Amino acid sequence: MIDPLLGSGAAGLYLIGWLYQAVKLCDPQPAKTRILQVIAAAAIALHGLTTWGLIFVDDGLDLGLFKVLTLLALVTNMLVWVSGINRPVHNLYLALFPITLAILITALTDTKSSSPIMLSSGLQTHILLSVLAYSFLAIAATQALLCGYQNWQLKHKHQNALMRALPALETMESLLFKAIWLGQVLLTLSLISGFLVYENLLAQQLAHKVAFSLLAWVVYAVLLFGRYYYGWRGKRAINWTWMGFLAILLGYIGSKVVIEFFLR
Which of 82, 97, 114 is the last residue of a domain? Predict the structure, then answer.
């Protein structure tokens, strides 16, 4: 059973964390990372309990669209929180917290649910790899947004509060490509495990997802190749990052929307 209080508590803490960080942007004193990390940890803990209640039902797993998006948001925030212990990535919360808040509220108020399913260990591994891959690539897409904003501000010689709060552009791009490398490795393992687990991965309801996942893999592979051999950075790297992530979104979310809302 889902406790609405847990979900409401998580949503409230995400909102508090975002407001704290947004207010500190206008303050000469930067936001205290420790306070932000404590708020984020509490929000993630309640978010985790809420996600457990949403997905793990009596007859198996409910893998409806908004439930899975809640899980993806949870893993993404967890990865940023862990990375924030040693790296200056906490400014990603400015984009992640509002998105997570919207996903949580939608999942808690959504009255529809998918038919519960029982999964084999192989399929569970495939889903775990997919969730981790999508989460790292979501982090990369968020990082690319901030890099794009930072690049635009530098090009037009602007220096606002958010610019002063962000690390140097070189550091931001380094973190961006680390997230892409990890996401690409996990996406590769996810695709391999999918071909091993499913008897017919190109079946009608999976073909769309597979095609866009392979397209995303190619886009990220080209981007990493361009980075390594030609030093791609700036606007080109940002555009390719978002091309890959949009392919991921179309492949997974697009197919879920069609199956759950149009073919149901």
Answer: 114
